[in-house]
Amino acid sequence: MMKGIRRQIVLQYFILVLLALLLIESIFLVAMQKYYYDSIYNYIESNSKNVIRYYNSSFIDSSNESSFISNLMYYLKLENTSLEILDTEGRVLALSSGFESDRVVQTSDVPQALKGSTGRWIGKDVITGESVMAVSTKIDYGNDNVYIARYVTSMERVNDALVDILVWSGLIVVGVLVLVFTISIGLANSIVRPINIITAASAEMAKGRFDVRIEGDYKYEIGELSSTLNYMAEEIVRSNQVKDDFISSISHELRTPLTSIKGWNETLESGGYDPEETKMGLKIISKETNRLIGLVEELLDFSKLQQNEMKMVKGTVSVREVLQEIMLNVWAKAEQKQIKLRLTADEEDYLILGDGNRLKQVFLNVIDNAIKFSHMNTWIDITIKREQDQVVVIVQDTGIGISEEHLERVKDRFYQVDHQHGGTGLGLAISQQLIELHGGTLQMESELGNGTTVTVKLPALTQEEHFESDIDPEVV
Questions:
Q1: Fold of domain 220-306
Q2: What region holds the Histidine kinase domain (predicted)?
Q3: Are strands 313-318 and 474-475 parallel, antiparallel or unpaired?
Q4: Least enclosed by CB within 10 Å: which of 153, 276, 438, 449?
């Protein structure tokens, strides 16, 4: 028993073809019947008109009615067709069969003939009961000599032929339907079989077995679906790996400062240290505490961005001032590696509409990364310029660079190129989303061993926005 989609495909395909075949057969049978009937009618009509035309040109004496009717019967007779001569009332005056008849013909072909056209009637003969066609033609010789020549021919042989055609066409329809049924089952199986395979694989994936893959080279939408599910499984495996790496990394990042804090706390509690050592211990505790706070805040920011709960207070922001402030903040860290920061900009302020603190967070992350991955005694160039209606910030270093493989994923959440440098792997992911919230873009170009270039583009502030932001900062 076929179920589900397979049965629906077979049933609908079968019904569609059946209806189409029935329509075609009906049209064919009607056309064949019309062809046969019209052929018989046209033959009788053409013959009778030709004979009557010839008869009119002859000099046959029509004063004697009996002789006149006999001549009509002689000239108008047709093989395998019965001829009747009727008067205007429809009474039968003569029959080609030789039997006398005083009956009155009341079929529709007689009135049609009296009106001047060639009448045709198809029906059952009142005497024999067989199917016949009657074709009537008016014969008018003047002096009130009006007669009707009525040909009656049996349609039984024609109808038998039509029945044979119906039987044969019916057998052809049955054969076509059997073929269609067989093909539709194969078609349904070709669709349902891969769906069943995909369903089974999806069920395994739902149980957590993401190593399962859909095998087979399927075409069209089925192929796209299987490729999508395989890609989804690969992405889940990769995401799980990234998650595991993140958990391992963040555990290490949290454990290191906590160990330092706990160790110095226990040391200070034991007492007996001079003021300098105590001061150094408290300084380390403060530094590691700030480090913990930074990690937690980064996680909280990412959570807010994921849930669209990040609030920003937008106002007029000078990009130049933000970058100068960041350079002061990271100066000590850069000095440790003897790295020089170089800012290149025109005299203008490069104003944008944005949240100054969030933009500072973005550029601090970008510049801090540049310092972290740069070599000793190198330069980091920071360039500000305007491109049409955008403010463009370019941060370029000559550090270790990023390979093409890692560059494609470096902005993914939790992803870290080098776990040894620490961090949560969220910095660039957060920066990307914050820039997008400002209507801008963040792009990275890098070559392994030759440094990295980060380009941030933000919409420049218009005069109308400048005026409005000075009056009332916008909270979004």
A1: Helix Hairpins (1.10.287)
A2: 249-462
A3: antiparallel
A4: 276
